User: Fold these one by one.
Assistant:
Number 1:
Amino acid sequence: MRPIQARISLGAMAHNLRVARSHAGAARVFAVVKANAYGHGLSRARRALAAADGFAVLTLEEAANLRQMGVEQPILLLEGLFGADEIATCTELDLWPVLHHAAQLDWWQRQPPVRPLQVFLKIDSGMHRLGFRLADHAEIVTRVRHLPGVAGVTLMTHFAQADEASGVDWQLQPFLREMDDHALPWSCANSASLLRYPDTQGTWVRPGLMLYGASPFADVSASQLGLQPVMTLQSEIISVQALQAGEGVGYGQLYRAEREMRVGVVACGYADGYPRNAPTGTPVLVNGRLTRTLGRVSMDMLCVDLSECADAGIGSPVVLWGEGLPVESVAAAAHTSSYELLCALAARVPVQESN
């Protein structure tokens, strides 16, 4: 059997939820489990995050799966309705949709739910992705509060730079100032703002990435935040090559040896979810020792430098990211994000759970 596998620690995920709750103050916690729980598996996340006050998903299918698994907490649909026909399903499953554009309000007006539902009203405070314009909030809030079948309204916005030096105040303060007159509950905080900006706690917080043990910040590690890695992608060396000075390795011969050296071939490639654009020098652990990748990542294999791993050979364990090697370190080297790496784990990679 091919040696690659992903180990998912449910205990680490539960620990990270406790960290999120410790930052949330009096706010309730929506555990964001969209995109198959960021690649970790919706069923696993549902079990590990059972203590969450609610779950946030993208699609009706994800929400229906959670209900079938026995989830009784509120479930938030982060992109809301994609058609009027979905209102009936929201009623059936008792889902809380996010309303963020006028067509959704029109659908609701024409086909209200048979019993009242909670809704979240998304206001665009500067990200310019989803949401009603902040300048139009008074009219929109009034309309939504008077829609038939609305049990309650929570105001919502999303931050564009919570993980950067620009921070959140340029969005948060105008949002709070304009929303103050409505005396409604509100939700702003994602992982980055929850960890760094207590003023964003509101009524509900929406942590995602931090639950899976990765830091949202470029300058602060997950361990410094008290987070534990949940996914460890691991494999083994399946071949060892001896290069002479000047010889290259892999497609395009992008890396050429400067001296005589040993190279390990690892059973992991971009078809497993490892980033194809990871350059020479991307960190990797071999036998628990930090080393680097060499050359271009192939579909099913990648090469690593064994110069400082004299005891490594065929069968030696390799950690691509996770325990002992933060996923954000690999993401930074590959010029991508932890989100992308975790979500990209391929279906062909076997998954082993641990507690």
Number 2:
Amino acid sequence: MSPETILVTGGAGYIGSVVSAQLLERGYRVVIVDNFCHGHRAAIPAPSIVEELDIQDTERLAQVMRQYQVGAVMHFAAFIEVGESMRQPGRYFSNNTAGALSVLQAMVQAQVERFVFSSTAAVYGNPERTPITEEMELRPTNAYGESKLLVERMLPWFERIHGLRTARLRYFNASGNTPQRGEDHHPETHLIPLIMEAALGQRPQIAIYGEDYPTPDGTCIRDYVHVCDLASAHLLALEKLRECGNLLYNLGSGQGYSVRQVIEAVRQVSGRDFKVVSQERRPGDPAVLVASSAKIRRELGWKPRFESIEEIVASAWEWKVRHPQGYAAP
């Protein structure tokens, strides 16, 4: 019996490449669709099949699904920079929302029924309490979160009308690296790799955006979840879709760390010091985002292997030291 084929959009990206590697390890055949506006060819695990195209090319995408007899789609292709989304919201609604709609329409054309969607904790906005559970009110405070929420709202209609089975995975701060694959965005906007660039002397300082939040040390608190743990959750959701659809899970460690705590963790792991400066708050940044992942732990048996910020930072530092210029390094 031939292995099932999974199509991974954005499979050359940070999370998509790690998910693709885990799919291959589990015996699936992987077809990666990426336009390489942000992805890295060096991140793609062998022996993935690669189709270079834009997800908004619905007809070509449907053709690829039919050509490889795709059984399910895992959708990671999206823009992720919160700050940019508040300057260029149209870019995010076009790529993230309309792009996902194109993928869904291609699935309907090609009669592919299972869809795993990479969503975000940003759909919750400023929650009234923490930890955040799946049934809490959805009030994004930035265009990035809204662009993802609009996709979430489409999915029940595609289930009801076209018979799709879908999973929405709302994850918190993806972080950490594997020995083979690391976080390498251009420009980089995520906290841990930015701090590491400061530790390596690649940037003169690290900025803290706001020190007057209602938190113990005044800086934002986030829930960091290792990219390997995110990937394993996607595979569990993919397998569950064989039985039922309309899945919804938070993915987080359940522990919150402030910006200052993460800075200190990098100092401890790297053994290096660096300059830290204070700047004004960024628009759309919630004070605290910490997940309750009790539902996916209970229903799918998911358990993160990396549960402390020090473990996550150590894995990120190991890859960064070996790849100081990211995938561009010789």
Number 3:
Amino acid sequence: MQREITGFHQDEEDHWVADLSCGHTQHVRHDPPWQNRPWVTTRQGRSTYLGRLLPCKKCQTGEA
């Protein structure tokens, strides 16, 4: 289920987390070679992703 990104915050390990329109969150780490997401590392990069869609794993599995 695709959900809009409404914001970002950092978790206790300083990893970036996307806030989704459904109320859930999803990590959007940039830790090569696992995930290539250089846009996560700058404020401008993150702002360009506001409103974009990410699949919400919790909505897909029916978690509250």
